[in-house]
Amino acid sequence: MGESMNMQWHHLLLGPGDISAGKATAIQDAFTALFRSAGGPRTMALFRKDAQDGGLDLYFTPESTLHAWRLIEECKATPCAPPSLAGLELLVGHNEITYYLTT
Question: Which of 4, 11, 45, 51 has its CA 20 to 30 A from that of 87?
Answer without folding.
Answer: 4
